[in-house]
Amino acid sequence: MTSAPVLRTVLVGAAPLSPADVVAVARRGAEIEIAGSALEKVAASRALVDRLADDPHPHYGISTGFGALATKFIPLERRMQLQASLIRSHASGTGAEVEREVVRALQLLRLQTLATGHTGVRPIVVETYAAMLNAGITPIVREYGSLGCSGDLAPLAHVALAAMGEGRVRDAAGVEMDAAQALAAASIAPLELREKEGLALINGTDGMLGMLLLALHDLGILLDTADLSAALSVESQLGTDAVFAADLQLLRPQVGQAESAANLRAFLADSPMVASHRGPEDGRVQDAYSLRCSPQVHGAARDTMAHAALIAGRELAAAVDNPVLTDDGRVESNGNFHGAPVAYVLDFLAIAVADVASVSERRTDRALDPARSHGLPPFLAHEVGVDSGLMIAQYAAAGIVSELKRLAVPASVDSIPSSAMQEDHVSMGWAAARKLRRAIDGLSRVLAVEVVTGCRALDLRAPLQPGPVTSAVRALVRTEVEGPGPDRFLSPDIEAVTALVISGALARTALAAATKE
């Protein structure tokens, strides 16, 4: 999901990054500036590592091997080779390229940890990572390789390899080239890693956290859009807005539910179509669950997102490495690289995404069924029998929902031991993040189908007119998609509305129109 470039500078090292900072750098090319105070802390922590490097007693990550080889002492003259070998061997990802925004996010988040002064790297390492981001150099990272424990090792190793001037990258224009060529073009000297630095560059939850933050940004837009698409369905299917009343919501004080119900009230306010059947002549007692319970489902997803945002905020404030340099000068092994906290909420969000898509598809299906749509033509077809209308659009939504249910199966309950049983329980958080990205894309498309359906259904209710908010949304949709008529090539319509969903244009239009009322 992309946004227009903006001019902005993100300061790293003075305070924890915000989610907005991560999105700005990952998607919009915001510039990085390193706080001077952070570089001072980095230099001070490096001095401690340099002292320990001369100690004849072994210190993990400084004068020993790694993982199951942690007991092997490495002599001084072999340690630069040790660090370079670590990165080369761990840059073993395979599969498709990971998206540029994900790579930039994980690189920024690793930079943030490096800038805390708890990892023992030299200031030049911090400065090199910032320079690569500012130059738009994006290391090529592969889909598979991380188990979400001991950090996102393979993805982060591909980034570190590029900083060493090895491997492949894409430049700011997206052209693939050797890392050495890209660094030279940007006047960035390749890193020669010293004690502790290779380990510090790969020991973090940065990949899964970056994908979580991007997902939370996108899901905020999608849940507003889901409230809007539900409003289109309620209105066009002659449903009632009475069930969304504020006093009814207070009887069950769920925060997300109240927010979604407030959106539905605002989106349906002053609708002649809703008012047309509000009297006692309407014999229906209540609407189907998919209409009536929209705030309950969407609201539960909002609450899930709020919990995930809490976990993400805590992780943004973390300095994840192993070993870590403490404020009082100790070098301590720890388990903070384990991705369980992030992995769990990634899986939790995938469940919520699947359910929001599921209820959306059910609303779409009702609009296409003359037995349940209260007077709309079958499949909203122009000439029933000759035309199929939106029949297969619902098939597409149903196929996506089925896949989202599969993607909702948690990754974090799995674990495959690695590193000769030293790393015998892993989080699979990277896999949880990858499937959540696919799930969010699917939800965007399911909501787009409901919006296409709802807008066509509004047209077919003429001379009844929709309310001001849904009218504004329909007008936006009609700039991309024609109204009812004989069957036409439908895929471009769905893709065009999906773009409006992803960009947030639909949600912004609805919220702006609701604010005016």
From TrEMBL:
EC number of the protein: 4.3.1.3
Catalytic activity: L-histidine = trans-urocanate + NH4(+)
Gene3D superfamilies reported for this sequence: Fumarase/aspartase (Central domain) (1.20.200.10), Fumarase/aspartase (N-terminal domain) (1.10.275.10)
GO MF, any single term: histidine ammonia-lyase activity
Xref: Pfam families: Lyase_aromatic
Keywords of the record: Histidine metabolism, Lyase
This protein's pathway: Amino-acid degradation; L-histidine degradation into L-glutamate; N-formimidoyl-L-glutamate from L-histidine: step 1/3
Cellular compartments annotated: Cytoplasm
Name of the protein in question: Histidine ammonia-lyase
